[in-house]
């Protein structure tokens, strides 16, 4: 992902913008200002990764910096005024979000402003929008938290902490009870799915989870650092295969491995789930995204002698899933989509 960058003119731009807003202080409040006004009793304080933010009233113009925060908003049936993806998948306005926003577009009922990339959103566009709530992640936006906070109340969350994130966002938008309902529904969906996977889990309980580029040059073994991608598999009853001692120096971080090292767990890995990604800019589009992300990886795997020597390959139990699906959408919607993908691949006869 792209990391945030500092823009030297931001402070001056914000100062001018804020001063312009203050110059209208003696004028009668507009309908929009009246709508946003609130009594002290309607204010709530929300703790998050970068500090404490006070939210008053019902936010109407909400900005989502990344799919990690867009997903819980849409699950709460809250639309956003602007969105920035964590990779450059679509340029120009979101005038057809169903085709322009991966996986989540079908839940978007308006036409959000495109702010660019989540790690470096367009400050000029934000100033023009005048939002009353900005949601992002500490990973992407920590460096610009102070800048964003001068534009609107800003909350930065951990990308994969589903329960905390959903609870905080629901509180911010005034729907705390809905968060608990969604979490309960998500848990129940997983419990219900366990029965469907029980036969497969009984026969092939040990799964090797890997994330990799299309050329098999950057391979990481799946563990807790893979969020929903790994946790859902364990919730379904699978045991995640690990390489002994490989993660000792990097607890909680993705751990690089080689195909040669993977052969050490060949006897244990009864199935392999490959989370594929392709960082070729020409393939970073929403057009047929899943196939474009995975087709080259499948070819690389089929043509690699070491990969084909693994027992899981010989048995036809290697499954390819776009990394964006579960890494980018770690909440209620992503859980449902990831479950459906696993069902289609693992439970459908070849």
Write the topology of this structure:
Blueprint: H1 10-22, H2 31-36, E1 43-48, E2 51-56, E3 62-65, H3 67-75, E4 82-85, H4 97-100, E5 113-117, H5 123-129, E6 133-137, H6 138-141, H7 145-151, E7 154-157, H8 162-172, H9 176-203, E8 206-213, E9 219-221, H10 228-235, E10 239-240, E11 255-257, H11 259-262, E12 271-277, H12 289-303, H13 305-309, H14 311-314, E13 318-322, H15 323-328, H16 332-346
Parallel strand pairs: 3-4, 3-6, 4-5, 6-7, 8-10, 8-12, 12-13
Antiparallel strand pairs: 1-2, 8-9, 9-11
Helix pairs in contact: 8-9, 9-16
Radius of gyration: 22 Å
Number of helices: 16
Oligomer: single chain
Element-by-element helix/strand order: HHEEEHEHEHEHHEHHEEHEEHEHHHEHH
Number of beta strands: 13
Broad shape = globular
Instruction: Give the N-terminus to C-terminus distance in angstroms.
Output: 35 Å
Q: Return residue spans where pLDDT drops below 50 for at least 5 consecutive residues.
A: 1-40
Helix content: 40-55%
Structural class, from secondary structure content? Answer: alpha/beta
Percent of sequence in beta strands: 15-25%
What profile does the largest beta sheet have?
6 strands, mixed
